[in-house]
Amino acid sequence: MDAPTEKFVALEADDETTSMRGCGLANLTWVGVDKEELRQRLMMPEYIRLAMRDCIRRKDTTAIPEHLLLPGGAVADMAPHAPMVVFINPKSGGRHGPVLKERLQQLMSEEQVFDLTEVKPNEFVRYGLACLEKVAGEGDECAKECRARLRIMVAGGDGTVGWVLGCLGELNKDGTLPIPPVGVIPLGTGNDLSRSFGWGGSFPFAWRIAVKRTLHRASMGPVARLDSWKILVSMPSGEVVNPPYSLKPAEENELDQGLDAAPPVAKSYEGVFYNYLSIGMDAQVAYGFHHLRNTKPYLAQGPISNKLIYSGFSCTQGWFCTPFASDPGLRGLRNILKIHIKKVNCSEWEEIAVPKNVRSVVALNLESYGSGSHPWGNLKPDYLEKRGFVEAHCDDGLIEIFAFKHGWHASFVMTELISAKHIAQAAAVRFELRGGDWKDAFLQMDGEPWKQPMSTDYSTFVEIKKVPFQSLMINGV
Length: 477
Prior knowledge:
Elements: H1 35-42, H2 46-58, E1 84-88, H3 96-107, E2 113-115, H4 121-137, H5 141-149, E3 151-156, H6 158-174, E4 182-186, H7 192-196, H8 207-220, E5 223-226, E6 229-236, E7 248-249, E8 266-273, E9 276-280, H9 281-295, H10 303-316, E10 337-342, E11 350-352, E12 360-364, H11 381-387, E13 399-404, H12 407-414, E14 421-426, E15 428-433, E16 440-445, E17 448-453, E18 460-466, E19 471-474
Parallel strand pairs: 1-2, 1-3, 3-4
Antiparallel strand pairs: 5-19, 6-8, 6-18, 7-8, 9-12, 9-16, 10-11, 10-15, 12-13, 13-14, 15-18, 16-17
Helix pairs in contact: 1-8, 2-4, 3-8, 4-5, 9-10
């Protein structure tokens, strides 16, 4: 099926126009894509949609009811050009979540839009995608083409996108290919994943037009690659930690033995991140804010109140105003932290000095951080050569490590007046935390903070290594 031609028309002043900067579409003005053409482009045949829905509801793919299938299967020409499913987090995007869900169902079909409060992405992979593969394996050429061409859109924030990417990543372990690429309808707060792949940083005001146009572009956009990073937290077994949702207990301690290992008896947690991991004061502020929001949600009901509360935590916890020496917990991270890295094509760990008086260290994968800022900066070739760095990209197998001295320094960096304090580029990183005057450290991973207890007798290790496979993203630019 050929792609329908996009219709760009010069409009009069009184015609309905809109700027789609919010969806990453620059300042294009257009008459919307024809709704029926879009449906033909995206919507899978009804028998496939119903079969997938049935398998997900029953959580079983072993016996697909015969009345849901076409006798003898269907020919490849019945497959749409870009079959698509959408996951939507109805809690994101404020009041837009439920109405956006309804709009998406109108543009595609009810069976191809999944509410994440009802169908989890791992359930779709295990039962919905498996159903499609089963039908294709029985000789249905249409199902085979739908599986090969399938694309996924996620309407939510970075955490929701990462959740979907993680579930799709499990297909690599089973050798179930191809992996469907993922695009984004940004409904979160920071939306750095969305920004990094051209989908914009906010939900546009003219959303009814924007979502139709976004789906059309998602059906045609080129596929880009994204590194993902596995984190392993290994600590003395007597320590108690309440990890975030994205960290799960590890079945075994796979800590690299190239350095002094963890204590003889240790417990471990593991997870995957796509944007960043940070240690220090910024994570402590985020932890306080999240704790307040969870215990007193009525205090944080909108972007303005959230920012005011967040600013208050920043000041009261010393990120901006309190001298380093007034409290051990406010001193530089070099008191509790060691950093080791592995460079590209190098098997040996190398210790990197922690700069003096820095109070936050960040390991960053994406170019965009903190709602669209670029803390690593656009470094000049001479500086890159002098430091042994290369130009940073999200698919280069390297992670950038930098630091903030305090809140004022971070503010200047985030407004891109200066760059952050560069520490290293690495193919693997190990942070070693040891207590003393400090009882706890604070960490956050892709916006999820937690308090990490520290022992004075044994170190806690946080090890970051690249996941062997890359995620696939639809580029919206």
